[in-house]
Amino acid sequence: MRQNTLNPNAMKKLIAVLFCAGKILSANAINIPVEFEKDSEKFTSETRDNLFRSAEELYLAKGLKVTLQEPSKNADVKKQALFYKREKELKEFFKEEHLDFGRISFNYEHEGCKNIPVMNIEIANYEVTATIIHPDSVFTNTNSLLITCQPEDVELANTLAYKSLNSQEDLYNANVSSSFENKIILIRELIKIDFQNGKVPKKTVIAQLPVSLSEKKSYLLLHWNNINREWSKTGTTVKLTSKKEKQYFSARIEESGLYALVESKSVSVKTVTAAAPKNAAIIYTELISSEPFVRIEGVISGNQKKAAFKSPKDQKDCVIRSVCQDATGKEWIEETPVKNKNIVSIFNNKKKINAYFQK
Amino acid sequence: MKYITTILFLLGSLLRATATDTPDVRYLKFDELSSNFNTTNTKGQILKCKSAFDVFLPEGRFAEEGIDILVPQSSNSKNEKLLFLKWNYREKQWNIIKGKKVNSQTINDMKYHVVHVNESGVFGLFENDQTKGKIKVILAPSIRLNRIEFSQKNVQVNFEKQLASHSKSVEIPFGNVSVLSEFSMDVSMKNESKSKTYRFKLGEIPDFLRLTDNKNNTIVFIRQKDLTRISNSSTPNTPVK
Fold first, then answer.
1. How far is CA B237 from each of CA A57, B184, B196, B230, rounded to the nearest angstrom?
2. Cβ B154–A283 below 8 Å, yes or no?
3. Domain map (residue ranges) of chain B
4. CATH code at A156-263
5. What are the φ and ψ backbone dihedral angles of A258, each rounded to 5 degrees?
6. Which chain B residues are closer than 8 Å to A281 by Cβ?
7. Which residues of A touch B76 (CB under 8 A)?
8. Testing the interface with B: which of A181, A303, A326 to mutate, by most B Cβ within 10 A?
9. Among partner residues A225, A278, A304, which is closest to B178 by beta-carbon distance?
10. HSE-CB for A157 with a 13 A CA cutoff
11. What does the pLDDT read at residue A283?
């Protein structure tokens, strides 16, 4: 039996023909720019002529794709009102011409995002179904945050709340760590984000958040995972932007919780070792410091007599805070400063210990 | 009528069978692990238990195909070499399961150890204790030791030894000892056949009777008055018959 197969050359030719045909077909799509008289919702005479001339094409078209460049929610009220009047006028025209709305798609875009007319009708040579496509909604929410989000998240993002945790007490009580991917991070800004009633947006919400930082370095935005008790990266590197003498950054937010701005450069570390008080075992320990805030959980030895930390090299005023327990079951908190190794400790043959508890 | 009743009975039986036809995995807490099992290998060396679990696989698909068990990895588990062992009830020891490996898997950014199990039993993930040193327990001449049990919760270890010849000392192959480690000892006084159990934490023994030498051996001296003090301070234990 003979098989109906095409040889490679014939195949190439067929693809080329189909490609050209596609090009011709797409080139045949007619675009009618819709222009209006100044400060009016009336079509210009040129637009009116174009529309009447293309009336047959409009009527017979497989579909119409209408593009509208919508002013932002923060734009001038008059400008917005004029846009909606013009939009209404265009729809009225479609009604008067008895065009089938089931074959018209309305695509709303940000104003000025493309070099195209404010409104445009494309007589499509392909099937169009009635859809209304909105761009990301941009607005200032009730907490004065500039928000960019999908239309379905507007209501939730409108109440998005933000709090910068600046005090040492806030930072400590936040119970976050200064470790990320086995490296030490310096938290420059700790932020608490809240969507109302613990809801989560359907898509990422972008919020312009003010920061107290002045240095225009590159930062990473991390999100604190309360279950795994670790930081996870959100999006890419964050850069600060100035607006009215204030610094802002764009945060890509997917859920409520704690977020931290950290420097993306690595921090030099040194090992710090602490020894437990006599007759006590260390059951939890952390190294803490202020300016910048550091909190690092220590690794306790199997015999619970020592704890090791990776501490930032240039960090001064580090304190080790430990929960100790004795054989009677009594628990207490011990605090001791981290000291540099000195001649006495070397003399005592305990070179590695930086911190002792007094008891 | 009988026919319908039979069909209904068979359907009921089938439903009941499918209801219990699910595997059951129960992670063992340290208290349960230390009271029912030890954590030593066949050579008597102490192993640190990362996780132990009791698995029930009903006959059928699950027993044929087996199931994967996930154990969360600790943050400092980078160089961990884990052993996957099964408890042998007859020999009362953990045995190696041939051809079974411990794999790693990340789910929702959480890292897990993964083991495949295709039979019922008690299984555990263990790590060899790398620290050198031993615990040497030396009793006063008037005391005889019949049994000793040692356990340390933070590293999940448990060791038990029966002493046939009423010894005066014993060695426990573990160097990472904490003041919170627990001992349970069956002792009898010289010339007495009656044995009594004492439970205490290492830190309850005065520190001058606990010495650590430069080989990391911990030597613990136990006097009769220490046992008396421990006995008075804690709930009286039932004497072993």
1. 99, 10, 8, 11
2. yes
3. 23-128, 135-233
4. 2.60.40
5. -95, 135
6. 154, 178-180, 203
7. 299
8. A303
9. A304
10. 27
11. 94
Q: Select from A232, A299, A328 the Cβ nearest to the Cβ of B109.
A: A232
In 3D space, the residue among A68, A200, A76, A84 whose CA is nearest the CA of residue A135 turns out to be A68
Q: Is A30 exposed, middle or buried (0-12, 13-18, 19+ CB in 10 A)?
A: middle
Are the C-beta atoms of residues B57 and B140 closer than 8 Å to each other?
Answer: no
φ/ψ region of A317 (left if φ > 0, alpha if ψ in -120 to 50, else beta) reads left
Same fold, A156-263 and A269-356: yes
Cβ–Cβ gap B176/A327 under 8 Å: no
- Asked if the Cβ–Cβ distance from A305 to B76 is below 8 Å, we say no
CATH number of B135-233: 2.60.40
pLDDT digits 0-9 by tens, A154-210: 888 988 999 988 777 888 888 898 888 888 888 888 999 999 888 999 888 999 998
Q: Domain residue spans in chain A?
A: 8-135, 156-263, 269-356
Q: Which of the following CATH numbers is that of domain A269-356: 1.10.287, 3.10.20, 2.60.40, 2.60.120? A: 2.60.40
Residue B172 has pLDDT above 90, yes or no: yes
Query: Which tokens is A323 given?
Result: 């929960």
Q: Indicate the CATH number for domain A8-135.
A: 3.30.1330.60
From A258, A198, A251, select the one nearest A225 (Cα to Cα).
A258
Using DSSP bridges, classify how beta strands A241-243 and A306-312 pair: parallel, antiparallel or unpaired: unpaired
Whole-Å CA distances, A291 to A173, B77, B135: 16, 31, 45
Measured CA angle at B157 (ends A332, B123), to 5 deg: 130
Residue A157 burial by Cβ neighbours in a 10 Å radius (0-12, 13-18, 19+): buried
Residue of chain A whose alpha carbon sits nearest to that of B178: A303
Query: Cβ–Cβ contacts within 10 Å for residue A335, how many?
Result: 12
Is the pLDDT score of B239 beyond 50?
A: no
Take residue A165 and report the two structure tokens written for it. Answer: 């945790």
Q: Which of A341, A347, A307 lies closest to A324, judged by CA?
A: A307
Q: Which ipTM was obtained for this model?
A: 0.80
Strands annotated E in chain B = 24-27, 47-56, 67-72, 82-88, 93-96, 103-107, 110-117, 121-128, 135-139, 143-152, 157-167, 169-172, 182-189, 196-201, 210-212, 218-222
Cβ contact, residue pair A326, B203, below 8 Å: yes
Q: Does B179 contact A283 at a Cβ distance shorter than 8 Å? A: no
For residues B152 and B43, is the Cβ–Cβ distance under 8 A? no
